[in-house]
């Protein structure tokens, strides 16, 4: 099952750097809604996403809650939070095919054939039919961005955390991939956080925008 049904509630989430508060966020994101996070470079946008996903490393740390229904994800290990993190580099596993990348996090069950069919359906949805056996190294930037998103979605996340996912793409491709990304989030009812510096991304996301100031003086 994708999504959360009830959305995501971020309550008093604060990232600290060596014990000092860096940045904080309070937000509610409905299923399929995209909350855009903007703010100056270094304010802590990426760190907020990493904190939510459970990948923050010292000297960075975090306090606060990220609620899905009655469950506080911050009390869970990273592996069980089920948050689909996508970075600007759209990093794919180089030793796996495109299909292997997408199937990587899929829940077991349903058998090989069923998994294969699910991968094919996702590739079709992304306008990449027949790409399953391709080596990720042969993909264009735009294709890689789509496959990275499919891999995140295929794992059945509760929400999507997108860290400047379009910033490496040329302007002509961005509109298409934005539409694909936000369409997929809406279709699957995934609450989505989008970190970007580009107002056009925020406009296309058509959701609320939060400008992060952070606690530090720049
Ligand atoms: N391991 C670390 N050790 C010390 N400081 C760190 C570490 N990781 C991040 N920081 C600092 O934390 C702050 C927030 O970094 P972060 O990458 O979250 O900012 P950002 O808002 O995403 O920036 P950008 O828009 O440039 O990507 C920065 O000042 C960064 O230098």
TrEMBL record:
<keyword id="KW-0813">Transport</keyword>
<dbReference type="GO" id="GO:0005524">
    <property type="term" value="F:ATP binding"/>
</dbReference>
<keyword id="KW-0067">ATP-binding</keyword>
<dbReference type="InterPro" id="IPR017871">
    <property type="entry name" value="ABC_transporter-like_CS"/>
</dbReference>
<dbReference type="GO" id="GO:0016887">
    <property type="term" value="F:ATP hydrolysis activity"/>
</dbReference>
<keyword id="KW-0547">Nucleotide-binding</keyword>
<dbReference type="Pfam" id="PF00005">
    <property type="entry name" value="ABC_tran"/>
</dbReference>
<dbReference type="InterPro" id="IPR003439">
    <property type="entry name" value="ABC_transporter-like_ATP-bd"/>
</dbReference>
<dbReference type="InterPro" id="IPR003593">
    <property type="entry name" value="AAA+_ATPase"/>
</dbReference>
<dbReference type="InterPro" id="IPR050093">
    <property type="entry name" value="ABC_SmlMolc_Importer"/>
</dbReference>
<protein>
    <submittedName>
        <fullName>Putative thiamine transport system ATP-binding protein</fullName>
    </submittedName>
</protein>
<dbReference type="InterPro" id="IPR027417">
    <property type="entry name" value="P-loop_NTPase"/>
</dbReference>
<comment type="similarity">
    <text>Belongs to the ABC transporter superfamily.</text>
</comment>
<feature type="domain" description="ABC transporter">
    <location>
        <begin position="8"/>
        <end position="218"/>
    </location>
</feature>
């Amino acid at each position: 099952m994708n999504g959360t049904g009830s959305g995501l509630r971020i309550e008093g989430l604060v990232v600290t750097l060596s014990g000092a508060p860096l940045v904080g966020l309070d937000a509610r994101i409905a299923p399929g809604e995209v909350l855009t996070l903007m703010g100056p470079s270094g304010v802590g946008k990426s760190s907020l996403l990493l904190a939510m996903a459970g990948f923050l490393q010292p000297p960075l740390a975090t306090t606060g809650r990220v609620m899905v229904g009655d469950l506080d994800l911050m009390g869970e290990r990273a592996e069980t939070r089920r948050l689909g993190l996508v970075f600007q580099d759209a990093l794919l596993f180089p030793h796996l095919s495109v299909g292997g990348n997408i199937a990587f996090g899929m829940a077991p069950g349903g058998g090989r054939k069923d998994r294969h069919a699910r991968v094919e359906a996702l590739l079709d949805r992304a306008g990449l039919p027949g790409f399953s056996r391709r080596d990720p190294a042969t993909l264009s930037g735009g294709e890689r961005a789509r496959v990275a998103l499919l891999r995140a979605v295929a794992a059945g996340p509760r929400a999507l955390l997108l860290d400047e996912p379009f910033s490496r793409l040329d302007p002509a491709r961005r509109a298409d991939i934005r539409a694909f990304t936000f369409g997929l989030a809406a279709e699957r009812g995934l609450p989505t956080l989008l970190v970007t510096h580009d107002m056009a991304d925020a406009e296309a996301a058509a959701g609320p925008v939060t400008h992060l100031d952070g606690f530090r003086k720049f």
